[in-house]
Structure formats: C-alpha cells, structure tokens
Amino acid sequence: MEFALVVPVVIVVILAVAEITTVARLQLELGQAAREAARVAATVPDPAQAVDAARMALGADLADRTSVAVERPSVVGRPAVVELTLPHRVAVLGLVVPLRASAVMRVER
Asked: What are the C-alpha distances in Å from 37 to residues 4, 8, 70, 89?
C-alpha cells in the first residue's frame, strides 16, 4: 500500500530534477552564447556577425529555435547589447517557458 503511494511522488521528483537540470543547462548555454555575441558586437561594426557568433556558439539544434537581437551603436564607448530568447517546452507539463540571456559590452571600434 505504501509503495503505491510513494512511487508516483518519487517519479514526479525525478522528472522535476531532470527538467530543472535541462533548464539550467540551456540557461548556461544561452548566457555563454550571449557573451560571445557581445564580444563580436563590441569589436565588429556589423551586427549580423554578432548574430552569427551567437548561433555558432549555440549549435545547430538550439540556434534554429533561438531569437537573437543585437543593438550596436556606432559610437565608441557606448554599450552593445545582445539578447537571446529561447522558448522551452517543459516536458512534463507541456508549458512553454521563455529562457532569456543578455550580455552588454562597450563598443571598442
């Protein structure tokens, strides 16, 4: 009797831990890709190259699902801002959770 009550709770906990791990990994990958794109945006005048850098850092599987926004002023010393958004579907609940990451670096040239 107790086994029948405990097993569903254990399964839910295991699935929750797996989903939290997946979200944490995706968030770290988005943050790294945003920093890489911000580095490129700070040093290269073409924002398209920063978008390409973000997509390369993410890999093909995530790059297709991620939107990348780059704001790069032409004035040296102003902040270049890169924002990434990835809609992530929570496997257990079917909800879509937007994961976001951004990075800011000063324009160097």
From this structure: 50, 43, 8, 25
82 within 8 A of 37, measured Cβ to Cβ: yes
How far, in Å, CA of 78 to CA of 52, rounded? 21
Count of positions (residues) in the chain: 109
Q: Which tens digit of pLDDT belongs to each residue from 21-66?
A: 999 999 999 999 999 999 999 999 999 999 999 999 998 999 999 9
The pTM for the full model equals 0.86
Residues 6+ apart with CB under 8 A from 47: 41, 70, 71, 72
Show the CA angle centred on residue 65, arms to residues 33 and 60, nearest 5°.
65
Tokens found for residue 1: 């009797």
Which residues are bridge partners to 104 per DSSP? 81
- Contact yes or no for 42/103 (Cβ under 8 A): no
Q: How many helices (H) and strands (E) does the chain have?
A: 3, 3
